[in-house]
Design goal:
The complex is a heterodimer of chains A (279) and B (112). Chain A has helices at residues 2-25, 32-52, 54-63, 65-102, 113-140, 146-171, 176-204, 227-236, 244-264. Chain A is 74% helix and 0% strand. Chain A has one domain. Chain A starts with a helix and ends in a 15-residue tail after the last helix. Chain A has nine helices and no strands. Chain A is globular and about 60 Å long. Chain B has one helix at 2-18; strands at 28-34, 37-39, 42-45, 51-57, 63-67, 72-76, 81-86, 92-98, 106-111. In chain B, the strands form two sheets. In chain B, strands 3-9-8-5-6 form a five-stranded mixed β-sheet, with no helix packed on it. A four-stranded mixed β-sheet of chain B has the order 2-1-4-7, with no helix packed on it. The longest helix of chain B has 17 residues, at 2-18. The relative contact order of chain B is 0.23. The chains are: A mainly alpha (279), B alpha+beta (112).
Chain lengths: 279, 112
């Protein structure tokens, strides 16, 4: 039972934390609940389809299909997060100002909510397909412990979801004028962590070089498969034994999205005073 | 932008030159998931030589083969197998397991 709880907790955690941060990052926008729910629904449906074709995906591209699929999903999410962040550095202040002034949600307007909905969907899809396969195994197994396993799975699911709520609850207590700065940083680190994971898959698939197998080992200090390690793994991309390519991908993502945010993220009509040091 | 072009180009060149591409696999070793256990539970391989690890799932249900020590993770549908090229290992013990059945599906690769 404990084993089942731990698996579900781990698999749900990533999607749950992503949803919590996205809900906070879209605070004050009309219709965000619909978009996020749509993302979750689409992700769950997609997870079932992926699970159904797990065999075909695994054997595709000379056995590297699973790695390539995971990498593609992760990099798509990174691109969406980057796009959203660049957009928000331009418009975030106006939104925060309006919400603070009127106390009402503002119309989403041109804001690319679909980008964050897609991020939620992709996170749900990737981890969800493993959950579906695991539950399918329980359902198919004739073992007498199936009810106990199902119970454990439900507990793990609840635990993972609770952490998503916790991070949302914490973030909505951030003052509105700072909120989008905080969520922007969190989404940036989330993107960097996803890029590192994606690079890890491409290394496993033999497409990217390793650049050093284990550039550090902090498993003795903070094991990645522990609860705190898992949470940090999702939030900032913590890896207790990363390879050089994963580290490079992490740095490159922070640098590229950060640079784009500086380069394109200025509100129209605002004098470019701060630009001097930026170029 | 030019200031960035050079470091990026250097990084790319370094990536290509210093890259340790998967070594050509030598000997092939097999472990099998059967009744949600790993068989053999302890697999001996020679240290210092790259090898191919074949993981077969003889059960009807899917399993996720994992090893933190070897940085492996792959879902293996029932009745199929997966292959991994493993670089030369230092002598030591490397844990492997099936994530979907962590209570029973535990094993170790011993490089000696």
């Amino acid at each position: 039972m404990l084993g089942a709880a731990i698996i579900l907790f781990r698999e749900v955690l990533e999607a749950s934390l992503v949803i919590g941060i996205v809900m906070a990052a879209t605070r004050g926008l009309d219709g965000r609940g619909r978009w996020v729910l749509g993302g979750i629904g689409g992700g769950v449906l997609g997870a079932m389809v992926v699970a159904l074709f797990a065999g075909a995906i695994a054997s595709a591209v000379a056995g590297a299909g699973q790695e390539l699929f995971n990498a593609a999903v992760l990099f798509a999410a990174v691109a969406m997060l980057g796009w959203h962040n660049v957009w928000m550095t331009r418009h975030g202040r106006e939104i925060a100002g309006q919400v603070a002034a009127t106390g009402h949600a503002v119309k989403a307007g041109e804001r690319p909510l679909y980008a964050l909905a897609a991020v939620v969907g992709l996170a749900t899809l990737r981890e969800g397909s493993e959950v579906v396969l695991f539950l399918y195994g329980i359902a198919l197994g004739s073992s007498s412990t199936a009810p106990e396993l199902a119970m454990g799975a439900a507990l793990g699911l609840a635990g993972g979801a609770a952490l998503g709520f916790a991070i949302y609850w914490g973030l909505i207590h951030v003052p509105m004028r700072h909120l989008f700065t905080v969520t922007g940083w969190m989404l940036l680190l989330l993107a960097a962590g996803m890029a590192a994971q994606g690079a890890g898959y491409l290394v496993r698939a033999g497409i990217l070089p390793t650049l050093g197998k284990r550039i550090w080992d902090s498993a003795w200090l903070l094991p990645e498969d522990g609860v705190i390690g898992q949470i940090l793994h999702v939030l900032i991309g913590y890896d207790d034994r990363p390879n050089g390519m994963q580290f490079l991908a992490w740095l490159a993502t922070v640098a590229i999205i950060g640079l784009l945010m500086r380069r394109f993220g200025r509100a129209e009509g605002v004098p470019r005073v701060a630009a001097v040091s930026g170029e | 932008m030019r200031t960035f072009t050079i470091p990026v180009a250097i990084l790319f060149a370094a990536a290509l030159w210093a890259g340790t591409w998967p070594a050509a696999a030598g000997e092939s070793y097999l472990v099998v998931f059967t009744d949600n256990r790993l068989d053999p539970a302890e697999l001996h391989v020679p240290a210092g030589a790259p090898f191919e690890l074949v993981v077969r799932n003889a059960d009807a249900t899917p399993e996720e083969f994992e090893s933190h020590d070897l940085d492996l993770e792959k879902v293996i549908p029932g009745g199929t197998e997966a292959r991994f090229d493993i670089d030369a290992l230092e002598p030591g013990r490397y844990e492997i397991f099936g994530e979907f059945h962590p209570d029973t599906a535990q094993g170790v690769i011993v490089a000696d």
